[in-house]
Input
Amino acid sequence: MVQQYEIIVVGAGPAGLSAGIFIARQKASCLLISKDLGGQMNLIPKLENFPGTLMSSGPLFARSLENQFLTFNGEMTYDTVERIDEVEEGMKVKTIRSEYIAKAVVLAPGKVPNNLGLENENTFANKGVHYCTKCDAPFYQGRTTATVGVGGYLLESGILLSRMASKVYLIFRGGKLGGDRDMIASIEKKENVELIPNNSIKEITGTNTLQQITVVSNSGEEKKLDVDGLFIEMGSKINLDFVKHLVKLNSKGEIEITSGGKTTHPAIFAAGDATDIPYKQIVAACGDGAAAGLSAFNYVEKLKGKPGIRADWKKTIGDTVFHY
Ligand SMILES: Cc1cc2nc3c(=O)[nH]c(=O)nc-3n(C[C@H](O)[C@H](O)[C@H](O)COP(=O)(O)OP(=O)(O)OC[C@H]3O[C@@H](n4cnc5c(N)ncnc54)[C@H](O)[C@@H]3O)c2cc1C
Output
């Protein structure tokens, strides 16, 4: 028999785990389906910008969220969601191994950063090679860095690094920078930024951590650069094939949401990096995950003819507003 839940959450990154915590704590039956635990948090050995959390790491933080979810009797299964469809009883969620029915679904499948495809890139991940400049630039105060990437991501990376690093090599294949004119003008004024046009990265080397990169020009000339950090900003992959027939996506392939994580489908809510929010960071994913979880809970309660909970946690009696 197909297992039934009130709400199914897809993805155990910070957005999905936070949604799960807020749903399970309301005592709604909740299944969290994910390929892995933690998502992109597994790429963060040192997490220093989650408010109130000192000296944590992404994997440790993921474990805490998982424990919290399980404490409230949430259920979790490691599997991949292949397709979601509307059926008479609600939403059918098909995974590689099984099928489930839920009244509502919270989508939190996040994204995966693209890599450059260099031979030993994985070896140096977080040992000098980074995929999120806004997350990791502060680790390179006063140090020598390089950045490579595409379009606006590269420009933003260059600007962020120029505020922290003593030197920034900005490497790009074309003859001149493309994208936002103000950003380009800002980069061109920075004394610590050296543009390296018509080049790409051929090799990265070091002993335990990254020490050197080799750039190769379009005409084949090679040059070695000593760097402490290399930032790769090649964009990210978001895979929403399993649900794109049900919710509206924007031109970047992100799920369009409105307040409370509502999508264009009444029974589907979404949060985190797979949505069109700005500032994609863990704290935002957790907050939006909580909101999407509560919206899904309210949706299911209303189906039962119950009032649900107030999204803004306040109640007006007569002329008085009680916050709780
Ligand atoms: C290198 C790097 C460093 C970062 N450093 C920081 C930092 O220091 N501070 C900070 O605040 N943010 C940082 N970020 C950003 C932060 O990690 C993300 O904003 C956050 O993880 C997004 O959370 P999410 O839950 O939306 O998605 P994700 O973390 O991407 O999690 C998505 C989850 O969904 C699962 N999933 C996807 N598709 C399916 C499917 N079809 N079926 C089942 N499961 C599925 C994935 O396996 C994964 O578990 C960093 C990101 C990167 C790449």
User: Anything to note?
Assistant: DSSP finds six helices and 19 strands in the chain.
